[in-house]
Amino acid sequence: MKRLVPLLLAVSLLAPAPAQAAPRHVRLDGVDVRLRDGTTQVVTVNHTTGYRARVTWWVLRDGRWQQQLQAADGRIGYGGLVVGRKRHQGTGTTPLGSYDLLSAFGMHRQDPKWDLAYRKVRRGDYWVQDNGSRYYNRYRNKSQGGFRWRLPASDPNSSERLLDYRSQYEWSIVTSFNRGQVRHRGAGIFLHVNGSGATAGCVSAPRRFIRALMFRLDPDQRPVIAIGR
């Protein structure tokens, strides 16, 4: 057995070192980003003052995160920022944390250069915010039923008629916040075009910035949005 020790030692020295796991977190523009496996595209949202935020687009190239686009005039919710798991529907708060960028919808026909799954908004399309519906936090047309689309906007279970926001939702990118449909946590947290002021909980950025993202986001690159302060 003693003669085998040098041989085993030699083999161990020749064997390649195990590959190191990719980092699960990175800090970009002061924002802590939780990466998914294979993430090479990131949007950071750095709260600056009031409802203002700096929104930045990053790409991983040659092992380094490179800033590609930045908008100083981003917006968050009128209620400020809150830890995602503690968020409550109707508070106007924007959830802190990292979320996948899943798909998009908007007022235009799909451009063949867009890689994200996309839906053009049509008459009767809603984002369901009815806590009694199995389609809570999902895109659905009123003709399909399953939610109380007739509820007035003043009702806490009213859903969002997408055509009411033609400017903000010219392009709107869907995040994975509350994809698990926890009731009363909130629905419809998007990255969309700026309106006139604060959002109701989404993140928004200037039109040119969102339009540019539509041509750059690639689901194969596992893009995420990270919201911090």
From TrEMBL:
Highest taxon in the source lineage: Bacteria
Signal peptide (from-to): 1-21
InterPro entries: LD_TPept_cat_dom
Record flagged with keyword Signal: yes
Keywords, comma-separated and alphabetical: Signal
This protein's record includes keyword Heme: no
L,D-TPase catalytic domain mapped to chain residues: 56-224
Pfam families: YkuD
UniProt-recorded name of the protein: L,D-transpeptidase family protein
Native species: Nocardioides aquiterrae
